[in-house]
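As a representative case, the lines below give one protein's residues and fold tokens.
***
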Amino acid sequence: MRPGKLPNILWLTWEDATVTLRCFGDPYAYTPNIDRVAQEGVRFVNVFTHSPVCAPSRSGIITGMYPTSIGSHHMRCAAVPPPFVRTLPELLRERGYYCTNNVKTDYNFIQHPEVKGADDYPHDAWDECSRQAHWRNRPEGTPFFSVFNFMDTHESRIRIEEEWLLKELEALPPEARHPPERARVPAYHPDTPTVRRDWARHYDTVSLVDQRIGELLRQLEEDGLLEETILWLWSDHGPGMPRMKRWIYDGGIHVPLIIRVPERYRELVCPNDPTAWQPGGVNDDLIAVVDYAPTMLSIIGVQPPEWMQGQAFLGKYRALARQYVFAARDRMDETYDLIRAVRDKRYKYIRNFLPHLPYAQEIRYAEETPSLQEMRRLHAEGRLEPAVAQFFQPSKPVEELYDIQSDPDEVRNLAGDPRYQPVLERMRRELYRWMEETGDLGLIPEPLLDEMMRPEGTFSQTSAPVVRATPLGSGQWRVIWRCGTPGASIIYRRRNPDGAADRWQLYTRPLLCREGEELVAKACRLGCRDSAETVYRVGSPPPESKAQHHSPPDWHRSLRRNGVLQRLLRLKALDGRTDESALRQYERALRDRHPAMRYWAVVGLQNACSDEPTRKRFLPALRQLRNDPSEVVRVALAETLCLWGDLSAARQLLAPLLVHRQEHVRLFAISVLRRCSALARQLMAPLQRAREDRSEDVRKAAQTVLERVERGDSLHETRCS
């Protein structure tokens, strides 16, 4: 495709909103600008995210990879993805696009631990990433890929009463305001004035987003670019209401997608039959948001790289329609859980890998939502309907199965119904196939994964680029940059005689330069610090190479080789079993060479040994792990000993781990105390110190446990003596 024919691409995305749009059949919504785009484009009605929270969801969108495969699956983690992983905007920059982001990043790839927020992003990804980033800043004649992210629908907007937000909401026209009495309350929420008020506020904020989108569409039209730009409208996951955001029910993972393609570019999206793209159309194929990146490449005629796990649903390289989509829930802020799901067009299968934990674990940020506070109060009073009360059960079933057609709110679990056993078995097989095929890392406890990616917590720094220059005559030189770090990309800029430098550009091919020009280059690699800058004046001897080769461990290849992921899946298939065969397999796994296997073996025995004689039988084997070299194994052992009544041994194991150097070891240790309040009462001093921990998640977890102890709450302490 000639560069002049490349379409501009504009992504308009908003936070925390499922298909609460008029054009998606929701009569309560008021979204005229979004509806206009839908009338002129195509609505994709079966689109699902792989994660019901922003950072893992956006990590998959920006790479076309499942976060569970590249280590970015925990909320606000600091992944070091495998060296072959690159971002979509970098791939588009290689094709001549000017790429801007305004302004959210949240990809779970921290480059510089001391830099916070939107300033910490892969510098090889964006030409601009700021609140001022805009397609209008691009060089003349350059195609653009621009992203605008709207925070108006974020869960915080449901509950805050700050003056600036109230003024914006009050300025909405009457038809854009939502009377609470008209709200639809799903079956998993109590129908109370508080819940209805929260729902009405959510819809009001959707109206605000619609206004923002209308303003950007007007700017596009003012610039004469509407018919030269593909519009792509989407949300990252479901609303910040209980059992939606952070949960892999459809309320958390079903998202809207609308694509408007100008007539001149319809041959790109449907190359075999451009007339098949009909404005106002509806597409009901199953689509995953990891499919966005490969689809974007396919539309501009670029074959998606083999490493991308998403598949193109439009364009030259369109794949066959999906039969299944997948989703994962892992750590959410300070709270651990481990859940996987697979969905086809009718059924949803959910696998709870920590079934002994309750659904409604406290996440302090989510606890600020009035609806959740209302639900907890009504639960304590015994006034919740069964469909709502099940969210507060002290444990979860190992498996859940829902018929979405007859039960769209997913409140009737069919996993135990003999009539649905063939469906259950099919969906279970498909989920396990996907987990094994994609190398799902969820069963590697986060402290172990941290250490695999960054031994001793050290951030690797990308090696500085080295330069080679060749004279071409008449004062021209060919300049070539190289970097020794696998997976690194190079960015460069030219420095003017007055010392000012132009913007960073992505290095993709040898540069033709004039003698005397000054170049500045640095190398970037996802999850690593940027390199030091290399300065080179064209025509002078290249600066001496320091022969640095800073490379993070190739943890991905190591895991693939040692087969532990497959062994873990086989071990976790025993969940819910208490028979002799299962117990013996857990006992053998206590001696496995990999600490993740030993960790899950301890957890498995903790839950499978349901009576005192069985516990006494396996206690000697467990006690042999008191000096295990792995902290996560010792954490699991401390919890088991506490729940089996040996508080003294549990305290000796856990106390040093509460002050461990690694953040997620400390968080793992505090998580034990959520279920063991008797043990927490014996560890009050380190818990009090944890209130001042440098990790926000550790501080929050400690505060939750301390409040529980102060209340005398032992709800989850089911087996402590």
Remarks:
- The chain has 25 helices and 20 strands.
- Residues 715-721 have pLDDT under 50 and may be disordered.
- Residues 193-222 form the longest helix (30 residues).
- The two ends are 72 Å apart (CA to CA).
